[in-house]
Amino acid sequence: MNVKLKKLEIIDTELTAPPSKSLTHRAIFIASLANGTSKLKNYLISDDTNYSIKACSAFGPKIENIKGDLHITGMDYPLKNPLNEIYVGNSGTTMRFITSYSALMKNNQVKIYGNKRMNERPIGDLIHALNDLGVKTYSINKNNCPPIIVEGGGIRGGRTTLKGDISSQFFSSLLISCVKAENDVEIHTLGALKSRPYIDLTIDTIRYFEGEIKNENYKKFTIPANQQYIPKEFIIEGDFSSASYFLGIAAVLGGKIRINNLNFSSSQGDKIFLDILKKMGCKIKYGKNWIEVEGTDLHGITIDMKDYPDLVPTLAVVGAYAKGETYIQNVEHLKYKETDRIKALATELKKIGSQIEELPTGLIIKKGKTRAAEINTYDDHRIAMSFAIAALKTGKIVIKDIECVSKSFPNFFNLVENIIESQN
Asked: Which CATH number fits domain 3-18+238-423: 3.90.79.10, 3.65.10.10, 3.40.50.150, 3.30.1360.140?
């Protein structure tokens, strides 16, 4: 399905942020390893989180929606043997997290795979780390990508090393499941660790469920063996990544948007987008559970986005309407996302008239003469949602194949259409 959004001259509206996808994933996996019943309130219902629910429940935990809350009755080690295959669609988080999790089943093996793009995304570093820790794991096609085989029997423990510049989810996957290892686990970081706030989010959630992790300045993580997660009630915060598109709309259109269900003291790294917009010229207000952005004349910035990869599509489109140059640095790991986001953003921004320099590690963006365009989304939810900003600004842009937003924000375009109606 394609969509062409009407042009908006200015905006003044209020809405509620959807639940955090990152926190929902983490809570599902951790609660599934707690011996008892946890309740997740305000959890995100999306394609990605549904894949995590199905994957975890295949190993024995009982997971059900009761009156809008997700009730998870977890299982201690060992988990039950699942069916022979686990399919994760295009959910990178599910793929990475279930790989370590499945090692906690009884002596059996399971094939884990996804859609075409997922089966092109590298997972070799996680495979090697699990083998270091006593888990027999391998890529079926011997290309360090899914489909993979994981053999159960537990995580022996020990020492392993992970590169810091591929995916922080490899670290998160091990941190969550190695709480159940037979012996202590040490994870050493090779090089600089990117996307650190996502590691913080993982560790905070583990600690909420009373797991113990020692973080030595992101260079070394120590996980004591044979721990017990304690079942809890866990309230999922609003998602700053998903809110960023609406904050970007206010920045580019002018006017203001207030977004409820956002906790400014959250450990979500993507709340940095508020500081970014402020540096670009926006006015920011916030209260106990809300954020308000008012757009003004924007100016470009130079910024290191290595820790905030999910914000790059939004920032790139906002930068296309700013005076001067916006230089996004140190995001080479975007090549391993749902698509090669550096190339995708460069290609699509050029279509709408922006002046773009595509670099191996980032993008330089300058405002150009706006023109009509059809935007390819590459089955990437964040490409689709970020270009809604440009579509509302110009009224000349068609966004193709918008079904991909069901990955993280299924009602995104319905919400945008409601905003358009409310402003006319």
From this structure: 3.65.10.10
